[in-house]
Amino acid sequence: MAKRKLTQTEMPVADHAFYGLVWAGTVLTERVDRALTKAHDLPVSWFEVMLWLASSADPVPASVLGNSTMLSRSQVSRVVDALQTRGLVTRTPSARDARSVEVSLTPEGRRVFEEADATRRSCLAPVFTDLLDEEDLAALSTVWRKLKADKDA
């Protein structure tokens, strides 16, 4: 019996769209993880936390990292521990809430992030950003916001 793949026309559009999101997320994440680990000894989960920290001008409450990343709160705590051990982040008591801590990149953490971000971008370019135009990227961003809005509600 010959094996063949289903074509998009044989699959309902909603199923194909869902499968596409899962496929893209899995394949792109694995690609970035391999590149970051090889070049910087920095797993993609660590990079994700650093990305959120680099995007904020102020220290970020640890609880916000748990709500913003795709990691569980316990995973965020372990990642922050590992980043702190490497001297890439600092934890400071929150000025607004004595029960919580805020996390920020150290100068070394910012340097490592910038190098890792360049690696991530060059890794993704041939399979993502070079293939998509601004309209495609804006459409994906719109879809992501719609899907995520329900989670944030």
* Topology, number of strands: 3
Name the average pLDDT. Answer: 90
Radius of gyration: 18 Å
Task: Determine the N-to-C terminus distance.
Answer: 49 Å
Q: Let me know the largest β-sheet.
A: 3 strands, antiparallel
**Low-pLDDT ranges:** none
Structural class: mainly alpha
For this entry, what is the oligomeric state of its chains?
single chain
Number of helices: 6
- H-E string: HHEHHEEHH
Helix amount:
55-70%
Strand content: 5-15%
How are the strands of the largest sheet arranged? Answer: 1-3-2
Q: Which geometry do the CA atoms define?
A: globular
Pfam family, one: MarR_2
Protein name: MarR family transcriptional regulator
Organism: Streptomyces caniferus
Explain the overall architecture:
The chain contains six helices and three strands, in the order ααβααββαα. It is mainly α and 153 residues long. Strands 1-3-2 form a three-stranded antiparallel sheet. A hairpin with a 7-residue loop joins β2 (89-93) and β3. α1 (13-40) packs across α5, α2 packs across α5 and α3 (62-68) packs across α4. The longest helix has 28 residues, at 13-40. Pfam families: MarR_2. This is MarR family transcriptional regulator. Residues 1-149 form the HTH marR-type domain.
Topology:
Blueprint: H1 13-40, H2 44-54, E1 60-61, H3 62-68, H4 73-85, E2 89-93, E3 101-105, H5 107-124, H6 134-152
Antiparallel strand pairs: 1-3, 2-3
Produce a short descriptive summary.
This protein has 153 residues and is mainly alpha-helical. The chain is built from 6 helices and 3 strands, in the order H-H-E-H-H-E-E-H-H. A hairpin with a 7-residue loop joins strand 2 (89-93) and strand 3.
